[in-house]
Design brief:
Layout (H helix, E strand, L loop, with lengths): L9 E5 L12 E6 L3 E5 H8 L11 E5 L7 E5 L12 E8 L5 E8 L9 E6 L4 E7 L5 E3 L27 E5 L10 E10 L6 E3 L26 H17 L27 E5 L2 E5 L5 E2 L1 E4 L7 E3 L22 E2 L5 E4 H10 L4 H15 L3 E2 L5 H4 L6 E5 L27 H16 L5 E6 L11 H19 L4 E2 L9 H10 L3 E4 L18 E6 L19 H17 L3 E6 L29 H19 L3
Parallel strand pairs: 10-13, 17-21, 17-27, 22-23, 23-24, 25-26, 26-27
Antiparallel strand pairs: 1-2, 2-5, 3-4, 4-12, 5-11, 6-9, 6-12, 7-8, 7-11, 14-15, 15-16, 18-20, 19-20
Amino acid sequence: MKPIPLHFATVAICFAAVCRAAPCLSDFSVSARPDTALGDAASGRAAAGRMPARPDQAALLVRTGAEYAWPGVELRFPDGPRDLSGAGMLRVVVSNACEKAYMVHAMLRTGADQGRSPSGCATLRPGAVREIAIPLRNIPWVLSAPLDLPGMRQKPGTADSTTYDLSACSGIDVYRVQTSRKEAVSFAVLSVSFGENPVAPAVLDAATFFPFVDRFGQFRHADWPLKIHSDEELAAAAAREEAWLAAHAGSPIPDADRYGGWAGGPQLAATGYFRTEKIGGAWWLVDPEGHLFFSHGIACVYADTPTPVTGREHFFEWLPKRGEPLFCGWMARADGRLNIDFAQINQKRKWGEDWKPRFADLAARRCLAWGVNTMGNWTTDYAWAPRRVPYTVWIHSRSFPHKLPIARKGFGDRLPDVFHPDYPAYIRARAADMAAKVADDPMCLGVFVDNELAWDTAEDPAAYAETYFGIVEAAVREAFPHHLYLGCRFAWGGEDVWRVAARHCDVVSVNFYERSPARDLPPGAVDKPLLIGEYHFGSLDSGMFGGGLVTVFDQKERGDAYRSFVRDCLDHPRFVGCHWFQWQDQALTGRPDGEDYACGFVTACDVPYPELVRAARDIAAEMYPRRFHRE
């Protein structure tokens, strides 16, 4: 697709409002970036045959070439910069107008560097319409003066350092980032809207900010609906949940078998273990009883949210002393510093010293009542020990002492030197150790090996992948002859690496943080199913500083985004499951690497978020008929 040679031609376009609250912008001055042509989306719809009709809206067709690194369109306010500090959210609706999948980005121009400007993205499958939702504030509190808050990725700063400067916004850029495989694409911008009940950041007095963590691990200087203020409130919340679980003891999955599979669907061959099969053009998991199974899961089922204390003791209004009943969760790190774990402390408050069996029993009952039929990656053995919910296990190469030299800069876990003669024996030993715990359990869905490896740091990623996947597959088949090899949980990696994975894995797994799971295997790959190993949506209305990798407006939108994401998985013929990351909110003050996301299904005090529970139950009730009858 070669665009018309139109560079920075300026036109005017009217956008219809798609806004639930405040009035939205009605017009922009529009400029094409280099290697980009602009046109009427109606003509693009006729040419591509895939654009949905939107007679209520004028829309802009954007045709990009394959040469410029960031082709796209620049939307500018014709009357000059505007103050959007009270806008709350920016929503840009885009649509794919060609026959290939690609990613579109949107960024609000604030006059700051790109990294300090609100931005978001969406991957578009052919014919898809997606909303890029961009929060215009990143923390709901600011400090009256700067404070040192080490060890936290997201933290309140002063008004000019933490929240975006939205006082003079010039417009919005909507564009494609060309990867190593540059290509021409077409997309349409359908609407732009602002608003949705914005909340101005609250100013906190820096002189009285410390301590800012209460005895339950929560933020002291704010309230929200699920906050716990006393031991009595913690006990009352647990009692209310017990009553709810008693009233919802059965699974919301219609005709569910003991694994959470679809006993009301077709009867297939029962092997006693999970397997895969393609039926009617769509991939499925098949459970041990021979019933269709979609893995509707949550990762990290455990009470484990360590946060560093050493040097930050003044953060906390209370810390247990050694020898006290609530003393737990303190762990010495390699650097000699200590961690504390409020998740475990709160479990002790609820259940006493022997809390792990009580936690595991409650987790199993919750999963059944929520319609969640899989405990995903990172789940600890004490959580899946009752073996009442299907689960996955994980082995890894992190402790292998020999690492591949870094050929180039990249992201992810450093690659093990799989060419070292000790690596095959090492990974076989790791697999055998985990297999001994699983003990051929039919409840075990399968095995992940490694996580988010830095493929692009290898000199020849595809050649490396051939050796890596060959060794790992042999180890998994030897130790787990009846269980699925679920891959390495891609976050990065080129198409050649994915093709290698598809030849060796039963299921190719990918961690994917966007509003929609718009991924697929590359052309030429062996036909295999895909599994989302991680996704989530966080918000900043529950006393946390970090909204996660995909931030939405509030708890209601978390539930709505959950439904939409899982439904997209169900409608995609290749996906056989998706696992939410994670069970519990991360520590307010950050885990040892600083990550501090409000991404849990339950709070720091182990109280479930009702909006997510409702969303999970809604999906569970519809998922099998929806996927089976998707055509």
